[in-house]
Amino acid sequence: MDLDNLFKTTSSSKDKKSTSIDLVVSDDSTFLQAIDELYAIEGFASPLKVDDIDDESWHKTNAEIKHVILDLRACGELVSEVAEISSR
Asked: Containing domain of residue 65, as a range?
């Protein structure tokens, strides 16, 4: 049975998925491990992880950043932090 026909996916849509990646910004290893487990359960590629949004390493990837997940649980100034990040 060809599952591509069943789910109506094509090889071009698979290639597109491989060029985009999610970015997770967190310094909490437990949170990052939970994110990895959830991505694996859903069948997604593991996201790119950085400790700080100002970390330049995520700019060096050739993949397109599709979603950004910010861990702002410990942020005291939530509104100002989000405003600063979104204005970049």
From this structure: 3-86
| Strand ranges (E), the chain | 20-25, 48-50, 64-70
Query: Exposed (0-12), middle (13-18) or buried (19+): which is 8, by Cβ within 10 Å?
Result: exposed
Instruction: Compute how many other C-beta atoms are within 10 angstroms of the C-beta atom of residue 66.
Output: 12
Structurally, the chain folds into a number of domains equal to 1
Distance between CA atoms of 61 and 66, rounded to whole angstroms? 12
CA distance 81 to 77: 6
Q: For the whole model, what pTM was predicted?
A: 0.68
**Distances, alpha carbon 70 to alpha carbons 2, 22, 82, in Å:** 38, 11, 9
**Predicted confidence (pLDDT) per residue in 50-81, tens digit:** 888 877 777 777 778 898 898 888 877 878 87
Contacts of 81 (CB under 8 A, 6+ apart): 72, 75
